User: Fold this.
Amino acid sequence: MSDGSISAEAASRESHDDGNRMSNAYDRIKESILQGSFAPGMRLSQVKIAERLGLSRTPVREALRLIEKEGLVTSERGRQIIISSTSMADLDELYALRVKLDAATVRISVMDLASEDLDEMQTCLTTMDAHESLEDFAIFDEAHRLFHMIAIRRAGPRHVEYSARLNEHAERYRRIYMSHTSSQSQSKTEHAAIFAACTNRDGDEVACLLAVHYARIALTIIAQIEPQFEPRLVRAAVGAVLADHTGPKRKSEIEKKVAGKAVTA
Assistant:
């Protein structure tokens, strides 16, 4: 074997190792942000982030570039990193985007679900039921994310990638939501209804149920944190999903639910 071949192999291994280190840094930094270890609004240097996570600075720098593109951090001169703040305006926009994207996608993708997909969704529901406590949030949320991803993943990788990113960003808000047991009970009912509609391959029904589910979670969080805030983007998004796909009576009932009013028979 020539020296050139040895050098090429060594370079390839080094490149692979660099990629693994960057990937590890990316996963750990992002997890720290989503789980709140790096709190919203916190200012940290790249050096401090590397020290806190026991990582070297080069992969941290590369990982932060990717995370900044996702909107979870911003950078300033002097290599200072600011963890993106949470706000009701951000939540309103985030959940409005989720309603628009996922409802439109699932309307078509649910018709292509295989029996294996439905079995996997049922497993997710079982896992979620078994890990409802805040102490088990990580396990619950992993199953919860997968449950929603299964319903849309046959739409194609671009849809799944963007939806998954929005879902991840919502984790920072879902931790607030999970502290309210009455809301958890309602979510369980909604997840069961979404699963039943998926089983029937009823794309329109899944889309409407999903839109209401997302909107109710957003409104529940807003009511707990900043009740005077008007979530106009979420309301408009769910209204648009329901407008053409429900009868007048059903549409009125769902709109009342989303507005936080009692639903009458």
